[in-house]
Structures are given as structure tokens and as C-alpha cells.
């Protein structure tokens, strides 16, 4: 996909669902804080080791067209560029997409909805979503269907999300209700339900569960209002503990899931 095709100005605001409207307003408010906490060196180290490496396992992204959907200001962009990908950032938030343009002028931009993007079918070799799907409730299935449409046959849908069916999700649900830092429609995704719904359209290549101490206190410092200056002192220890605990914890005790799905070849592709 050419850069020109995705940077054309739009005459009006992107069409959006009710859930997306809530999240658009939410991220227009918090983009600056989000960048600071999720883009600092400690959080980026967590991302590369525990999100990007398993999420891109076995993928050759060199020279490939990759859509970084719900990109925010582009926290996964550098990792994609380092793997040789040609990146297009997609987000519905005005503030987030403006930040993405400033930070990554070499990348294409789509200021639109992932539920109805209006981008050409089968135009990407991979679509990547890091922590975005759970902001789309109750429209996650519609977003995955649109991602399927945008992928070329054999293309990869890579994602990282909080998931249902875990003990941490019970606490997360309470936290979401009590903390004003979350929008009302946020909720963990039902991975098993989505796999049943899309079994005829995707093959499921990677499904890794993890997320414990470092996920909470390094990666999610914004959620817990942890000063950035503190993170550099305890992050190295927690990153190592994350790996040790992660090898044992399993789905029930994990905070998040890394997935890599491949669009099937055939009539529905």
C-alpha cells in the first residue's frame, strides 16, 4: 500500500461505533500521559521481550506491509521498523494519530476506525494490535472481521490483550469500575469465543499467556500512578522475575495473552 493512499485527508471525522467514541474521547485526553509511561525505556524493554518477541515469532516482516492498528503514538513502530516492515499506523483518536505523525514521519497514516476502515481489501501482510481490542467492546468481533478483510491470504494477525477466564481478570473488572482512568466500555477479550467464531477464517499459530509482576509495576506504571523515576531502580529485577514466574503461571494466573493468527487460504480468504 502506498503512503499516498493512506494519508489522504478525510472530509469529516472517521465513522465510529459507540464504544470507539468513548475510547476516542478517552485517548484524546490521556495520549500525552500514555506516551510518557508506556514509551519510557523500562516499558519498551518489557514490550520487546514479553510482547513483540513472542508475537512476531516465526514471521518475516522484512519488506512487508504491516498495519499497526489502534497504534496510538506508535509504541510498537520501532520494533516493526527494525524488522524491516513498511508500517501504516491506524487510530481513530485525533491526538494519538497526530502524535504518530510527528514521531514516525516515514510511516503511512490512516486516521480511521478499525471496525470500518475503508482501506482496500487484502492490502496488508500483517495487522498488529497491542492492547487495543479490549477498548472496542462490544465491537471486538467486528474489528477482527475487518482485520481479516484487510489481510492477504496467509497474512498474520498479531495481538496482545488482557483475556477473560483468569483470576487477574476478576480484579481487573473491579478496578475498571472504580478507576476513572478507564473508559466505561473496556473489558478483557474472550479469546476462546473469538477462536470459535473465526475458526473457519484463521489458523491459530501462537497463543502465549503471561504477565505478572513486571506487567503490573513496570509496563502499567500509568495505571498504578507509579513515578517514572522509581521504575529504573526495580525494573531489572522485576523483568527477570517476570520470565521466571511466567514459565509456571499458565492461563488462569496470567494477566494477558499474546496471539498470532494466520488468515486461511481458500474460499473465505
| CATH homologous superfamily caption | Vaccinia Virus protein VP39
The number of helices is 10
The CATH topology is Rossmann fold
Strand order of the largest sheet: 3-2-1-4-5-7-6
Rg from Cα: 17 Å
The fraction of residues assigned to DSSP E strands is 15-25%
Task: Outline the biggest β-sheet.
Answer: 7 strands, mixed
What number is the mean pLDDT? 90
Helix content: 40-55%
Low-confidence sequence ranges: 1-12
What class would the helix/strand composition place it in? alpha/beta
Q: State the shape.
A: globular
How does CATH name the architecture? 3-Layer(aba) Sandwich
Q: Count up the domains.
A: 1
CATH class categorisation: Alpha Beta
Q: Spell the H/E element sequence.
A: HHHEHEHEEHEHHEHHE
How far apart the termini lie comes to 19 Å
Strand segment tally = 7
What does this structure look like?
The chain is 43% helix and 19% strand. The protein is α/β, with parallel strands linked by helices. The protein has a seven-stranded mixed β-sheet with strand order 3-2-1-4-5-7-6. Helix 3 (41-55) crosses helix 9 (213-219). It is globular and about 45 Å long. The two termini are 19 Å apart. Mean pLDDT is 90; it is low at 1-12.
Compose a concise summary of this entry.
This protein is 43% helix and 19% strand. By secondary structure, the protein is α/β, with parallel strands linked by helices.
Amino acid at each position: 500500500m502506498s503512503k499516498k493512499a493512506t494519508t489522504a485527508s478525510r472530509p469529516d471525522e472517521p465513522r465510529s461505533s459507540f464504544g470507539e467514541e468513548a475510547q476516542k474521547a478517552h485517548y484524546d485526553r490521556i495520549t500525552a500521559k500514555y506516551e510518557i509511561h508506556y514509551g519510557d525505556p523500562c516499558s519498551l524493554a518489557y514490550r520487546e521481550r514479553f510482547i513483540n518477541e513472542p508475537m512476531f515469532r516465526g514471521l518475516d516482516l522484512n519488506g512487508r506491509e504491516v498495519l499497526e492498528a489502534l497504534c496510538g503514538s506508535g509504541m510498537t513502530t520501532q520494533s516493526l521498523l527494525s524488522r524491516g516492515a513498511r508500517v501504516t499506523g491506524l487510530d481513530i483518536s485525533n491526538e494519538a494519530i497526530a502524535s504518530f505523525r510527528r514521531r514516525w514521519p516515514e510511516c503511512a497514516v490512516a486516521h480511521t476506525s478499525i471496525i470500518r476502515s475503508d482501506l482496500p481489501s487484502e492490502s496488508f501482510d500483517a495487522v498488529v494490535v497491542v492492547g487495543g481490542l479490549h477498548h472496542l467492546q462490544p465491537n471486538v468481533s467486528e474489528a477482527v472481521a475487518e482485520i481479516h478483510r484487510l489481510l492477504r491470504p496467509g497474512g498474520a494477525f498479531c495481538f496482545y490483550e488482557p483475556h477473560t477466564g483468569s483470576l487477574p481478570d476478576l480484579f481487573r473488572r473491579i478496578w475498571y469500575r472504580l478507576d476513572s482512568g478507564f473508559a466505561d466500555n473496556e473489558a478483557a477479550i474472550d479469546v476462546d469465543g473469538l477462536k470459535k467464531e473465526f475458526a473457519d477464517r484463521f489458523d491459530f499459530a501462537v497463543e502465549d499467556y503471561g504477565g505478572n509482576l513486571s506487567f503490573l509495576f513496570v509496563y502499567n506504571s500509568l495505571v498504578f500512578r507509579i513515578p517514572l523515576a522509581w521504575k529504573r531502580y526495580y525494573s531489572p529485577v522485576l523483568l527477570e522475575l517476570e520470565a521466571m514466574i511466567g514459565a509456571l503461571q499458565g492461563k488462569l494466573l496470567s494477566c494477558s495473552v499474546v496471539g498470532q493468527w494466520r488468515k486461511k487460504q481458500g474460499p473465505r480468504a
